[in-house]
C-alpha cells in the first residue's frame, strides 16, 4: 500500500488519478470527538489531492452543511478544520480505488480491527459509518439497517448513514441531509441530557 500523497490544490490529470490506486488519505482524527465519520474507502481523486470526499460529485460536504454540522459549506481542502468543530474522518479500508465495489469482502472484515483500535485510542462519542452495505460486511451484521444501532461499540454510539457518493442514486441531497440531521439532533440531545444530569 502506498503512503498518503501530499495534499495539493492542483487539478489532477487522468494519469495522476490512475497512479493513485492503493494510495491512502491521512485520517482527520483527534481525541474525544463528537462524531467520527467513517467512509468506505478513498476515491482515486481524493488520494491524489490528499483530502477526504474530494471527488467532484461527492455530496459529503454539502450534506454536512445542509444537515447543520457546519455553518457554511466547507471545501474538501478544509477537511482538517472539522476537528475544530469536534468531527473527524476515517475510512473502513485505507486503500484508494475507483469504486467501492473493488474492495473485497475480506478487506472489510479485516478492517474492523484497525477501526476498533482507533476507537479505543481516540474515544469518539459516535461512530458514523457511511454506507449500510459496507457496515454489514465489516461488522458481519447482514440485517443491519440505517440509523442508530442498538449497541455501542468500543464505547461509541454507532450510526449507519447513507453513502454520500454521487454514485449512490438511492439518495438525493435532501434525503442525505435529513438522515445526517437525525444524527446531529441525537448528538445534541445527548449533550443536553448529559448537561442536565451533571447539574442535578
How do the helices and strands line up, and which of them pair or pack?
Layout: H1 14-19, E1 35-39, H2 44-49, H3 60-66, E2 87-91, H4 105-122, E3 126-130, H5 132-138, E4 147-148, E5 157-161, H6 173-199
Parallel strand pairs: 1-2, 1-3, 3-5
Antiparallel strand pairs: 4-5
Architecture overview:
With 200 residues, this protein is α/β, with parallel strands linked by helices. It has six helices and five strands; from the N terminus they run H-E-H-H-E-H-E-H-E-E-H. Helices cover 36% and strands 11% of the residues. Helix 3 (60-66) packs across helix 6 (173-199) and helix 4 crosses helix 5 (132-138). The radius of gyration is 16 Å and the shape is globular.
- Our Rg estimate from Cα atoms comes to 16 Å
Total number of strands: 5
What is the structural class? Answer: alpha/beta
Mean pLDDT: 92
Number of domains: 1
- What does the main sheet amount to? 5 strands, mixed
Counted by DSSP, the helix tally is 6
Report the CATH superfamily: Uracil-DNA glycosylase-like domain
Succession of helices and strands: HEHHEHEHEEH
* Low-confidence runs of at least 5 consecutive residues: none
Shape call: globular
Task: Identify the notable features of this structure and list them briefly.
single chain, about 200 residues, alpha/beta, five-stranded mixed β-sheet, globular
Amino acid at each position: 500500500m502506498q503512503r498518503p500523497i501530499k495534499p495539493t490544490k492542483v487539478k489532477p490529470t487522468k494519469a495522476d488519478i490512475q497512479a493513485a490506486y492503493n494510495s491512502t488519505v491521512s485520517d482527520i482524527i483527534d481525541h474525544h470527538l463528537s462524531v467520527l465519520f467513517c467512509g468506505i474507502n478513498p476515491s482515486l481523486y481524493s488520494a491524489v489531492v490528499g483530502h477526504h470526499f474530494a471527488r467532484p460529485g461527492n455530496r459529503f460536504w454539502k450534506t454536512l452543511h445542509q444537515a447543520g454540522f457546519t455553518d457554511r459549506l466547507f471545501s474538501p481542502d478544509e477537511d482538517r478544520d472539522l476537528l475544530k468543530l469536534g468531527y473527524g474522518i476515517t475510512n473502513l479500508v485505507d486503500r484508494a480505488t475507483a469504486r467501492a465495489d473493488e474492495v473485497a469482502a475480506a478487506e472489510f472484515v479485516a478492517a474492523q480491527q484497525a477501526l476498533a483500535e482507533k476507537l479505543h485510542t481516540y474515544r469518539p462519542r459516535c461512530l458514523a459509518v457511511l454506507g449500510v452495505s459496507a457496515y454489514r460486511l465489516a461488522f458481519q451484521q447482514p440485517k443491519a439497517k440505517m440509523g442508530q444501532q442498538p449497541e455501542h461499540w468500543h464505547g461509541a454510539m454507532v450510526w449507519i448513514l447513507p453513502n454520500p457518493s454521487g454514485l449512490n442514486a438511492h439518495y438525493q441531497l435532501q434525503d442525505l441531509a435529513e438522515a445526517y440531521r437525525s444524527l446531529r439532533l441525537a448528538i445534541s440531545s445527548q449533550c443536553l441530557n448529559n448537561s442536565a444530569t451533571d447539574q442535578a
